[in-house]
Design a protein that fits this description.
- The chain is an alpha+beta fold.
- The protein has two domains: 188 residues, Ribosomal Protein S5, domain 2; 173 residues, GHMP kinase, C-terminal domain (Alpha-Beta Plaits, 2-Layer Sandwich), CATH 3.30.70.
- The strands form four sheets. A six-stranded mixed sheet has the order 8-7-9-6-1-16, with helices on one face.
- A hairpin with a 4-residue loop joins strand 3 and strand 4.
- The structure holds ligand DP6.
- The site of ligand DP6 has 15 residues, from helix 4.
- Ligand DP6 binds next to helix 4.
Amino acid sequence: MADTKVYRASTTAPVNIAVVKYWGKRDAKLNLPTNSSLSVTLSQSDLRTLTTASCSSTYTGDDSLLLNGEPSDVSGARTQACFRELRARRAALEAANAALPKLSTFPLKIVSENNFPTAAGLASSAAGFAALVQAIANLYELPDSPSELSLIARQGSGSACRSLFGGYVAWRMGEKEDGSDSKADLVAPASHWPSMRALILVVSASKKGVSSTSGMQQTVATSGLFQQRISTIVPANMALMEDAIKNRNFPQFAEVTMRDSNSFHATCADTYPPIFYMNDVSKAAIRAVEAINAQAGKTVAAYTFDAGPNCVVYYQEEDAATVLGAFAPLLATAEGWKDGSVVNASVKLDEGIAGTIKEGVSRVIMTGVGEGPLKTDEFLVAEDGTPV
Ligand code: DP6
């Protein structure tokens, strides 16, 4: 009898925010980076993508993806590379065991949802591609490790390869031309340093900036400073950061985080024509973090910025009162501020800085270090194959 079953598997996957940034490709087709990078995986209670992958011989037409309720194009080279690699792995299992259903030959129907608003302006490609790859790997019952799956997710979006793990994650740039050694590995699980917190200040950008894919290509092609970043700065920062994480040394973690963010944005400014991701609100956030550290008499907070104006402030739970206290008068009415946060308003910010932040930040996300992808029985595709 023909197999008409709808096969389904679901996973959630987290967002990650780099503390040593990926910026630059040495091979755009395979998505191989010019430098290694390192990130903190953020808790899925606050930020996550939920994806159900399904397939069936009864599905007609091409592979499809429904993202936040809207049909999404899967014909792009990156998504196609992920589908191709995952199918090839499933086909190898099927070739070795004739009893397995031939899932690799069925069309895929994928449904995906983020638990955070797109309006937050947070890059969701990392969680999105990590969830896509993990959900299909679950559907195909692939034996591959998170590191092996990271090789596939990398081809969807570079930073996605780091979202296959929780905690503190490195993406080793690798040396091989075929990219087979350019993958993520675990530096330390979340349980190693569970007190790490992240306060995300969502800064609304008036217009969409340069995408990271195109921005980094322009930097590689035109910035002289970039050469120094990849040859000297990043290798040193990677070593210092791994050491800081191993020893739970927050001042070292913080200094490397801030210096690396500054270095990345300096290469953007050195790109010709220059690229500016930070705006006046971002710069005020940097000054606020400096004031917090100066008035605390030690480094208790670190800022970092990706390819946009949002500021991520890393701090430890034990310093929550000081760090949140500095922002509380400005952000207590912002969407996302968690009431009941213990605050100590001993840190006073300069009026100009405080005003810029109050005006420019309308939403905050208060979160912390978290776990990697989690298999779940929550399905976005019903047993009959229709999206739910
Ligand atoms: C600034 O992973 O979005 O966030 O590989 O072209 O999809 P593509 O780029 P993407 O770049 C992220 C850049 C960054 C730094 C980082 O996350 O390491």
